[in-house]
Amino acid sequence: MASLIGNDVYAKANETTSAKKKKVLKKTVAAKRAGSKKQTIKNRRASTRQATRTKRIVKRAAHSRKLIAAKRASYAKQGGRRKAISPAIHFGTDPSDLRSDAAYIYDVQNSQSLYSKDADEALPIASLTKLMTALIVLEGRQDMNEVLEVTRDDIDTIKHTSSRLPIGAKLSRSDMLHIALMSSENRAASALGRHYPGGLPAFVNAMNGMAKLLGMESTHFVEPTGLSPQNVASARDLSKLVIAAQAHPLIRQYSTHRNHVVNIGNRVLQYRNTNRMVSYSTWDITLQKTGYIAEAGRCLIMQADIQGRPIIMVFLGSEGKFSRTADASTMRHWLEKTRLPQLADATVATQS
């Protein structure tokens, strides 16, 4: 009898303990579900905010393009159609001759704006994006000798452009950065973004974070190659990016090399710089990047020494294959004949 009573008490104790465990487990599961639901709601709100911001920036860029198109139409009514620029690269000496939709010239030495044309309009920037891609890679202190592989994730699904880098090609991070900057290799830029800690989403977040840190108020990135027209920035913003990028010797070196050879195992690929100006003896270019997609037009950013001064030039939405180069020549001659002598005279007067 005593044994039966003992067993009965033991069974009841087990039932009580089991009930308590179930209750605790139930509470734990409920708490986890609530936390998960809360996190899901938080993620959805963040995604909604990001989507809203992207739409706002894209809408603003589209509005800027309409304004610029209206200016072109007004120009056409007043003076007729502009003449095409020949490969000989004829240039003027008046900034009003510029073919670019937006332009900004900045004197690094004196931290002074020298010329501005629609410099605060957010416009698509095409492969100028790769300058920020390079900055994130180097600021992240990633191993430049690590071998990265090109995969199907690097295929261009935006513009459906081709690439000389085949799927399965393996190159060091250094070589990927080199041909992305110098020859605007899109698959290389994509591979750099994918191999960032946290993958492509983390890389894009880092790009936008860096833009905010640099004070690039009109800038927004959605991917690292520049193929998306949703990558937008103003000419003034891009001058800030150049200042940050020129602090890295590799960016200066890689972006201004005339050519570079990479070995992908079964063959060797020869890459050339997309900017012919780096080979001109009349120019002393210390950093540069070109870009083009239909929505952005021809784009160019660079820093060059002109009369001993480091000058940043930014040109966005230029018409014609040679127009951005012609615009750079126009601004250089205008600076040499008009603007820089005035600055030199002002400096002498101040010192006296």
From TrEMBL:
E.C. designation(s): 3.4.21.-
Does the keyword Signal feature in the UniProt annotation?
Answer: yes
Question: Which UniProt key words apply to this protein?
Answer: Cell shape, Cell wall biogenesis/degradation, Hydrolase, Peptidoglycan synthesis, Signal
Q: Which domain of life is it from?
A: Bacteria
A Pfam family that this protein carries is Peptidase_S11
| TM annotation in the entry | none
Broadest EC class assigned to this enzyme: hydrolase
Gene Ontology MF, one: hydrolase activity
As for family, the record states: Belongs to the peptidase S11 family.
Protein's name in the database: D-alanyl-D-alanine endopeptidase
Q: Which species does this protein come from?
A: Keguizhuia sedimenti
Q: Which gene encodes it?
A: pbpG
